[in-house]
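ESCALATION

Customer reports they have been waiting on this structure for their group meeting. Please prioritize. Original submission:
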Amino acid sequence: MRLRNCLLAILILFFTENLRIHRCPAQTPTTSIPPAILKLRSDLEANFSDPRLAQAQICVKVMSLDRQEVLYEKNARQLFTPASTNKLITAAVALVRMGPDYKFETRAFTDGQIHDGVLEGNLIIVGSGDPSCSPRFHDGDAFAVFKNWAAALKEKGIRTISGMILGDDSAFNAPGLGFGWEWNDLPRSYAARACALQFNDNVISLRIAPGPDRASPAIIRALPLEDYLAINNRIMTESGPGGAEPQIEYLDSDESIRATGSIPIKSEPMVQSVAVQHPTRFFLAAVESALSKEGIHANKSGLAIPGNYSAPPYSLLWSTYSPPLPDILKPLLKKSQNLYAETLVRALGLTQKGEGSFAKGREVVEEALAEMEIPTGSYVYADGSGLSRQNLESADSLVQLLRSMRQQKNFEIFYDSLPIAGTDGTLSDRMKKSRTKNNVHAKTGSMANVSTISGYVKTADGEMLAFSISVNNSMAAKDIVETLQDKAIEKLAEFARSPN
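Update from on-call: job pushed to the front of the queue and completed.
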């Protein structure tokens, strides 16, 4: 009997204690929330409750990085289309994995000998994706790198190449497009495809001027290579104002386009840029043109047999290197350059996995994000740039990315590469007020019915915050959505924990 009573007492004690443990949280008084935070949350909630966003999906998270404290969140774990804020992921992983000293290398080989000023063989260019054969890196001169190559050939006494100028672009897998890119985007300059050999951002600009008379064809000049595209010009000159905006479409898989529309006779020339369909062919045409203008002549250019020119018996003539990675990240993030983002994903695959494909690059991205405590399966990384609507992110994961980057040794490079409010990049005309100008460093993203912004802001107390604000499926005008986003960020910049 005594044993039974003892066991019964133990059981009663166990269940009583267990019940007490489970009830403890309810019995513990909640910590009071400081009035300043309550006010901030109320202001943000009112801002995002604007009736003009009633039909939209709004996802927000704000976190103090100094105190590791969530100040506000709204649908923070819901997935949304990030648009170009997807570039934050690409740039961050590239910096973490490849490091700030990384440079793209382009090598020039020959399979022949030099006799009496003639290279008796082929000039073979092997690329690794260098995006810096672009006027933005050479004071506006798209051909600057190739002029240096001409000088290198002349130093070796070469004036004629009896063979061909060949390009080996096998470092990157074709076709260089992102998964889910829309077909009507493909002729646009922002949809230029990534390739191991790149020139002028893989874009041709069409300068369209009115013809001399009414009903005469417009005058179209292609830059920087005038004769590269075959242009079916159906843009007509009109006598009155207005006109139908010129439209560009590719006729087939070759580099031939149809230009339609109209232009007023007294209007200034306009410029439209189109992405080339065969970047390597474009690159080689540019090399051939530049060398010819520098007095070095070759028979013609063409594609090399992939992968055969990085080892003997071919002779290395020279290697050319891009600027270091931080110089690539700045136009990628500040100007939202899609091509550079797609290039970096493939460079990640090439340098870390031995294959310059998006699939291998994505593996590197997923591994790096997992180390940042962003698990695979909590997002969809469909391309490097954000042009694909197949990308899915959450405010929670983007803030976690920003938080993790703040802890990296190269954070300042990442931070300085972001657009700065009221100063440069895609934020040059936004948030020009005193508290936000030169304070907010953030990446924007926009496409039809999508507007996003994620980045860093310092409060009135100097406290560093990370934030992510996404508005998807919005029928409101773009400027209305951006104004509401900017007002929210202004509240963050004005936030102070104490009245003083």
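Sent to customer with the following note: The two ends are 71 Å apart (CA to CA).
Escalation resolved.
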